[in-house]
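To fix ideas, we quote verbatim one protein's residues and fold tokens.
>
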Amino acid sequence: MEHLTKETFLKKVFDYENNKEWKFEGELPCLIDFYADWCQPCKMVAPILEELSKEYEGKVNIYKVDTEDQQELAAAFGIRSIPSLLFCPADEQPQMAQGALPKESMKQVIEEVLLKNKQEATVEKK
């Protein structure tokens, strides 16, 4: 799990200084945790994200952004409450979730939004 600064965010996620429209810069879809060290719900989410980073290694990158240290980055995304989780699929618009989500909810969003594994019923043609 990597901590992003504004500089690494611009390279690995989205260069918001040069692009008005969302253009994902990364190779793998990613989940970004906007957090602060003093935030109790953030501390509850941290070990879950650690587990998910291992479970989805090579499929999804999980990043953390310290909103105290990276205030400009947090402001660019309108972060008002933490934790805020930004789910960035490789080829679609990102989705923001606020609050300490349980692991199963995070896994569901990772599967459906980032990895596109929708649980759709397939109709067999005869």
Q: What stands out?
A: The radius of gyration is 15 Å. The beta strands are 2-3, 30-35, 61-66, 84-88, 95-98. Residues 26 and 76 are 18 Å apart (CA to CA).
